[in-house]
Amino acid sequence: MWQVACTADHVSRAGDWFELTCGPLSVLIVRGDDGELRAFQNVCRHRGNALCQGAGSGLSELRCPFHRWAWDLRGELREVPSRRGFGAFRNEDLPLVLVRVGEWGPLVFVSVDDGVEPLDEWLEGVPADAAWARLDELRCVATTRTPVPCNWKAVADGFSETYHVQGLHPEMLGSIDDVHAPQRFWGRHAVSYQRYGVPSPRLGPDVGDQEVWDSFIVTQGGRMGPAYAEPCPMPPVPEGQGVRDVIAGLLREHQRQFGADMSDFDTEAMLGLAQYNLFPNVTVLLWSEMVNVLIARPGPTVDQAELVSFLLLRHHADAPRTQPPEFAVPAGGDLGWVLNQDVSILQTIQTGLRQPGLTHLVLSNEERRIINMHRNLEQALGILEDGPAGSR
Ligand code: FES
Ligand SMILES: [Fe+2]
User: Fold this and answer.
1) Does pLDDT of 387 surpass 80?
2) What does the domain layout of the chain look like in residue ranges?
3) Number of the ligand 1 atom closest to the C-alpha atom of 67
4) Which of 88, 198, 273, 328 has the fewest CB within 10 Å, making it most exposed?
């Protein structure tokens, strides 16, 4: 199926390339001299060596280091050393193996299935739902990859509900309404809409501005700039406004340094989150000034996965695109306050899920996105048992 591979910033200029690895698959995404984005299976047509690893720029050809066969950036075979030894064959019979490539906003998707439906159909109602967000203003500023000690589905499930906020992220409760978070389902994808800068109803009616401010600072203060990444005094709240308006103003102000004009985003838009769960393994956290893409990929064994994240920040629509730095975070390394908590549970989840007495899970209304993902996955894999409606 379609997989998120990288962002437009990873492959914006002619000669830029990016390797997506997912389980045994390796796909090269390459920007050609003609400006076209193409993707190829990462395999030499001579003896099957993988051509390129990682990511980079300035590529003028794809040359296999083993015996130096070379293809141009369109995937056409250009050169075969000591060619006569092979007898007669035509270059056009041995192009690189094309992979389907598609783009939604700044995200680049690939699929090795030639028969896969077009990406805009695959994405169902998601692009229309996010159209207000002017995704063309986003630029990827960092990629991180970190190994995690669980199956990829446990990672995806963890980013498919807000029910765990009160368990895993108690510091967030001062600044999120984790109770009234409406969900919307298309066929395979879904979204949850969350409001930040307001206290959780779980804390009762008497939560003051200071508590909201402190919670926001601890869990995501860095969004307003480095000065707010650590506990700091709450600015005065002007007459007729709330602490939420103050936070929204500081977010807008901070984003201005990247050339982003967010003056038309009101407080509600500035402090909302649309959390898209793209089937089967991607969570797109769409905040007003930032997008965080979290991808769960299979690891070396079924009990291991890789968590890949792309951080994108709002600039102005004409801001140049450059390849973002990639950070390899070791297992247990620092991913930020909230993500560290999300990752901290993965080892014990995997241990528990392995216990033979666990025959089924008990899921709430708030965990329907998990149900939807697994139902779709079982259908895609041909293992969905038919039962009476509502039994699963
Ligand atoms: S395997 Fe690539 S040139 Fe021989
Ligand atoms: Fe979480």
Assistant:
1) no
2) 3-122, 126-381
3) 3
4) 88
Architecture of the domain spanning 3-122: 3-layer Sandwich (2.102)
pTM above 0.90, yes or no: yes
Q: Which residues line ligand 1 (CB under 6 A)?
A: 44, 46-47, 49, 64, 66-69
3-class secondary-structure state, position 232: coil
- Structural contact between residues 20 and 40, judged by C-beta atoms closer than 8 angstroms: no
pLDDT of res. 344: 96
Average pLDDT of the chain is 96
In the predicted structure, residue 217 carries a pLDDT above the cut 80? yes
Query: Which residue out of 28, 42, 64 has the highest number of ligand 1 atoms within 8 Å of its CB and is therefore the one to mutate?
Result: 64
Atom 1 in ligand 1: residue holding the nearest Cα: 47
- Single-letter code of the amino acid located at 85: G
For position 384, what pLDDT does the model report? 78
pLDDT value at position 386? 61
Contact (Cβ atoms closer than 8 angstroms) between residue 231 and residue 241: no
Please report which ligand is nearest the Cα atom of 44: 1
* Calpha distance 343→166 (Å, rounded): 16
Structure tokens at 258: 């990247």
